[in-house]
């Protein structure tokens, strides 16, 4: 049986742990081994009952290990995932109570409870898509994307690598969210968002642009 290691022991890591403990694969395909976190052992509270196993950059994956990434900031997530991948680490997808549409493809991404998608969507690797998010048909989501809970991405939306879409945001049909862009909580986006820009409000307006 594989040993599953969570990369990131902050709030998102604790949330991931709670979901993994009841995932249908727990105890069948893998058991939870503990956490990796660049901040050291003090970030893993004793009440979690799982140990800090080391720093991502110095940890050596073994054949029995599989990994999930639970770090909120996409750039920090990539920084901690990359050295593990270079050493041959296997990251897996987690899909507890999801309903993904026909022909939807996805990489090693963590899906929160009750995420659903329409048909023919493509979802990259090392993303974290939080609970109750609705993804329309023919949506394309890049790598290292973070999508908060209860978001809506309508059909034909495109989301670039490292983008962040905060809780409750709604992205209209056919809109493109650029690489590294940030969509604020509850924003309603009707127009394309350029790479690196931050938008907030309804309708969403740019408040920061790289």
TrEMBL record:
Name all PglD N-terminal domain ranges: 4-81
Look up keyword Heme and say if it applies: no
Instruction: Give residues annotated as binding substrate.
Output: 72
InterPro entries in the cross-refs = AcTrfase_PglD-like, GMPPB_C, PglD_N, Trans_hexapeptide_repeat, Trimer_LpxA-like_sf
Increases basicity of active site His, annotated site positions: 138
- Gene Ontology MF annotations: transferase activity
For this protein, the record's Gene3D superfamilies field holds: 3.40.50.20, Hexapeptide repeat proteins (2.160.10.10)
Question: What PANTHER family is this protein classified in?
Answer: ACETYLTRANSFERASE, UDP-N-ACETYLBACILLOSAMINE N-ACETYLTRANSFERASE
Write out the similarity annotation: Belongs to the transferase hexapeptide repeat family.
Please give the name of this protein.
Transferase
Protein's organism: Cellvibrio polysaccharolyticus
Output the lineage of the source organism: Bacteria, Pseudomonadati, Pseudomonadota, Gammaproteobacteria, Cellvibrionales
